[in-house]
């Protein structure tokens, strides 16, 4: 069964600094991979996803992620953090091999931006 | 277009009472998911439907929980009787088609407190 591990439940960066949120997955074959963001008291919103093709995926709000099969990783980055990026971020995987249709989430990483 | 609509947004109930959470998926979407979010366990998939048929309910905690989808535009999650440990945010989400790579769209959540 597929699973997702997010390294670091809390990440704190300064405004303008690089944001790096780590995600590793376990799956029998390359899966579909997603990053969602959750702002306080709101639902989850898709940031970006990888399904096929180019391994560097660009999303909303200046975020991007790179699928690395050899490392089974899908880390999320943003070159310059903004105060509005403070939120919780979830990496998720869906295993295409099993025809599985459900999304399995990591535990989440809370991102804090320091002024 | 309207997103996934959940009601109630907030509910406080006493232990032992019945709780019914409601969801209207995005029009045209034929997969529907119920997730539960807690601090301790993160985001857990409870059950999902394809074309109104329950496909996987292995995440439903126990017999006190039940979910129905009588038609393509409405689903309920019922807890009877409710217990304090059921306090959580319950998210409904929907997706177009069965394709695992398609985006799942989340509602704003129903915040349940059982006292």
Give an overview in words.
The complex is a heterodimer of chains A (115) and B (115). With 115 residues, chain A is mostly beta strands. Chain A has strands at residues 3-7, 10-14, 19-26, 32-38, 44-50, 56-58, 64-68, 73-78, 87-94, 104-105, 109-114. Chain A contains no helices and 11 strands. Chain A is globular and about 40 Å long. In chain A, 41% of the residues are buried. The model of chain A has no long low-confidence stretch (mean pLDDT 91). Chain B has 115 residues and is mainly β. Chain B is 0% helix and 54% strand. Chain B contains no helices and 11 strands. In chain B, strands 2, 4, 5, 6, 9, 10 and 11 form a 7-stranded mixed beta sheet that branches. A 4-stranded antiparallel beta sheet of chain B has the order 1-3-8-7, with no helix packed on it. The N and C termini of chain B lie far apart (36 Å). The mean pLDDT of chain B is 93. The chains are: A mainly beta (115), B mainly beta (115). Chain A binds chain B through residues 32, 34, 36, 42-46, 49, 51-52, 90, 94-96, 99-108, and chain B through 4, 31, 33, 42-43, 45, 48, 50, 55-56, 91, 93, 98-101, 103-109.
Please sum up the structure shown.
Chain A has 115 residues and is mostly beta strands. Chain A is built from no helices and eleven strands.
């Amino acid at each position: 069964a597929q699973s997702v591990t997010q390294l670091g439940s809390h990440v704190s960066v300064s405004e303008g600094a690089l944001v790096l949120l780590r995600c590793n997955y376990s799956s029998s074959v390359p899966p579909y991979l997603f990053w969602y963001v959750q702002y306080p008291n709101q639902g989850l919103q898709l940031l970006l996803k990888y399904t096929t093709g180019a391994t560097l995926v660009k999303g909303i709000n200046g975020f991007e992620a790179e699928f690395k099969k050899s490392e089974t990783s899908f880390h999320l980055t943003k070159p310059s953090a903004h105060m509005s990026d403070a939120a919780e971020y979830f990496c998720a995987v869906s295993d295409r091999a099993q025809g599985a249709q459900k999304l399995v989430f990591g535990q989440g990483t809370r991102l804090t931006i320091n002024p | 277009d309207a997103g996934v609509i959940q009601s109630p947004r907030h509910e406080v109930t006493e232990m032992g009472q019945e709780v019914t959470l409601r969801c209207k998926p995005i029009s045209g979407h034929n997969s529907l998911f119920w997730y539960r979010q807690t601090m301790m366990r993160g985001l857990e998939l409870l059950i999902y439907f394809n074309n109104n048929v329950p496909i996987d309910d292995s995440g439903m905690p126990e017999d006190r929980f039940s979910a129905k989808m009588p038609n393509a535009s409405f689903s309920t999650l019922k807890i009877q009787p409710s217990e304090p440990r059921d306090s959580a945010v319950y998210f409904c989400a929907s997706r177009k088609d069965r394709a695992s790579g398609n985006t799942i769209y989340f509602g704003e959540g129903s915040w349940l407190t059982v006292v």
